[in-house]
Design a protein that fits this description.
Helix content is 73%, strand content 0%. The chain contains 14 helices and no strands. The chain has helices at residues 13-30, 32-38, 43-64, 73-87, 94-105, 111-125, 132-154, 161-181, 183-188, 196-201, 206-210, 216-242, 245-267, 281-297.
Length: 299
Amino acid sequence: MAVTFPLPRELQPDAVARAYAECERVTAEYAKTFYLGTLLMAPHKRRAVWAIYAWCRRTDELVDGPQCDRTSLATLQDWETQLEKTFAGHPQDIYDLALYAATQEFPLEIQPFRDMIAGQRMDLCQCRYATFAELETYCYRVAGTVGLMSLAIMGAKQDSAAVRRAAVALGIANQLTNILRDVGEDLQRGRIYLPIEDLTAYSYSIKDLKNGVINGAWRRLMQFQIARARAYFRQAEPGVRELYRDARWPVWTALMNYRRILDQIERNDYDVFNRRAYVSLPGKLRALPEALWRSYWGI
């Protein structure tokens, strides 16, 4: 898997193929629902999406991975410098090589990648969010940016502000779903992503949250949060209809499967402290026909 860097200006096909294969491995291992959707894409598009996912995961692991205790603001600045080198044609490792290859095939913009690093800075410095406005900014940076990165690969019938807003909305919807699914896990890491203003509005205390209390107040709070996430999924749907036809099926599949995590949270009686909500493989496969139908008929 070793690659000599920097590469000559013309990309070495064997090295690029190995780089993409490694990004596929990472995606398949750590993002099973997402990976299933990518398999429905054209080969050149799925490879580029795998490269983006691998970069995003490595970025996330700087603050959430096994060695996150060593991460500082200086670490994130170094990571941003490495990103700039990659976009400039000087990849530093095999994952960077895959991302650089993707930039040569698709019109990827560097700003969403920079914005994601800004989101990691928030995670490094902030463990609670007072308002939803603060949380929405965070969700844009760590996930809405992925919508913009992916849009450059998926392609749309028109590059409009509305389509870009829809791409961001899908990323935010996915991140809000992650937050609701992972409340218990995040508490173990000392993080509370549910806005404090919402806890207060539903008379549910931080002490209750830390104790994993499931009562009427908690259920009402979670119903509100789930409704908010579903609203973002609905905002995303018009943008999916604007994608090129070969991208609609995988995106519809991923959207539908991710949204069903919210359904599972409800079936689990909002117990996100002791039970992990997920969609089974058979459940994911059942989404394929409906997603295909939507991709052709646009509804």
